[in-house]
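Input structure tokens:
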């Protein structure tokens, strides 16, 4: 196979010309490993892109997708249904914390975020509070690439090519502070008060204009920012005080990543809406979802029964193959008790990644659940180059890590063994030592 004939494909979030010069191709995957086109095995330190939480090529999931493809390939998503989507929604409702008991299906995290923002706006309007149109995100947030998610997102580089985006957006400050919190184990002690910035936005815009606040409970894409102790609790309290909906974007944190089904459960803070994707189907078929509290759903279920309550949806909402993958994935998580497994591994994981402290240029190590961020000092003349070189060395040495600028993120499948953790962190340590 010719690996560098990429004239036709435009790769997402990729330096396409740099990639073409040295392509990386994977052709197979099983459990903790990818297999490259030249037959190398690469240890997956990132669960693909934070999605393959149960490990690759899991037989029950593969079999469920195959069987469903043969039974019912597609069912119209609007004004019709098929049994699996009801079953999956019910299973999720049981897994979700508190009264998050209704589920709307999408096909990606980006679509889930835009859906959640639209539900929030429509909900307030239905309650006669249509003036609540402002949406609040956070600096450094990643909420996908739709216009809604990009607008509440806070990664400047991702936004700058696309003009003014949505009007009526505010951003909370991010919670990263190396001077105060570097090398924190678990949730950092400093920073709960950063949530008070929401009170300032309320003072500026008035609560009656604010629909919702959306945050990643643990910010993943930007380079693993762990929420300070008490921060999410304080956001919740301020939202409650002012009638603002709190949306947790759990696209990364859901399905065991933090050692519980969801971050909301692990961190003990209940959102009004929750977005999910990725681990929902173990990455095997695209799917996202929005969970809402019963009372929010009930607000929509008024008025004439013949009226469509929410003018929103996708051709592939609740796709049969995605539902089959989702149900089989939830079975694997349950049968292997993978969320508890992740929680049990956390102390060992924490010790392993904090062993990187003291290596050249390592300015921070942070962790929660089976996630770690390792921040390297940027080269003054070329920020990001050190991180990229570390990433490439790891790849060459047979370990896949994720790089954002000079931050390396690790988020292995929850089936990772103790020796694979040692191999992963050891490979990264060697790469950090080699890259000057
Ligand atoms: N919300 C969050 C919190 C995410 O992390 C999305 C929404 C968008 O999901 P989709 O399915 O539309 O991509 C994400 C996606 C990385 C990385 O390496 C992270 C994501 C995607 C690709 C790479 O950090 N997160």
């Amino acid at each position: 196979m010719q690996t560098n004939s990429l004239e036709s494909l435009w790769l997402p979030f990729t330096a396409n010309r740099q990639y073409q010069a040295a392509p990386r191709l994977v052709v197979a995957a099983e459990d903790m490993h990818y297999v490259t086109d030249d037959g190398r095995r690469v240890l997956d330190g990132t669960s693909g892109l934070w999605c393959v939480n149960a490990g690759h090529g899991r037989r029950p999931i593969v079999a469920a997708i195959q069987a469903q493809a043969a039974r019912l390939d597609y069912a119209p998503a609007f004004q019709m249904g098929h049994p699996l989507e009801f079953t999956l929604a019910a299973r999720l409702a049981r897994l979700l914390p508190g009264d998050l008991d209704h589920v709307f299906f999408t096909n990606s995290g980006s679509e889930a975020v835009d859906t959640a923002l639209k539900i929030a706006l429509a909900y307030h309007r239905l309650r006669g509070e249509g003036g609540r149109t402002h949406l609040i995100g956070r600096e450094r947030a990643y909420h996908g690439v739709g216009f809604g998610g990009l607008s509440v997102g806070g990664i400047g580089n991702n936004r700058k090519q696309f003009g003014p985006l949505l009007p009526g957006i505010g951003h909370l400050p991010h919670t990263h502070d190396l001077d105060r919190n570097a090398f924190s184990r678990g949730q950092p002690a400093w920073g709960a008060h950063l949530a008070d910035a929401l009170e300032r936005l309320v003072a500026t815009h008035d609560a009656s204009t604010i629909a919702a606040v959306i945050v990643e409970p643990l910010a993943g894409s930007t380079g693993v920012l762990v929420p300070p102790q008490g921060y999410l609790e304080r956001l919740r309290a301020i939202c409650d005080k002012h009638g603002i909906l709190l949306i947790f974007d759990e696209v990364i944190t859901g399905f065991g990543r933090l050692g519980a089904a969801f971050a909301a459960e692990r961190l003990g803070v209940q959102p009004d809406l929750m977005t999910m994707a990725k681990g929902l189907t173990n990455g095997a078929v695209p799917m996202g979802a929005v969970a809402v509290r019963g009372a929010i759903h009930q607000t929509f279920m008024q008025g004439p029964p013949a009226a469509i309550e929410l003018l929103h949806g996708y051709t592939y909402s609740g796709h049969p193959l995605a539902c089959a993958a989702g149900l089989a994935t939830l079975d694997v998580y349950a049968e292997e008790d993978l969320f508890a497994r992740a929680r049990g591994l956390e102390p060992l994981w924490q010790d392993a990644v904090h062993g990187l402290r003291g290596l050249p240029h390592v300015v921070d190590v942070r962790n929660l659940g089976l996630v770690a961020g390792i921040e390297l000092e940027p080269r003054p003349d070329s920020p990001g180059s050190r991180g990229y070189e570390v990433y490439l060395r790891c790849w060459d040495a047979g370990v896949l890590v994720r790089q954002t600028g000079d931050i390396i993120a690790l988020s292995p499948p929850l089936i990772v063994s103790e020796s694979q953790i040692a191999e992963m962190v050891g490979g990264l340590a060697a790469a950090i030592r080699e890259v000057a």
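The CA atoms of residues 172 and 197 lie 6 Å apart. The chain has two domains: 3-54+336-435, 63-335.
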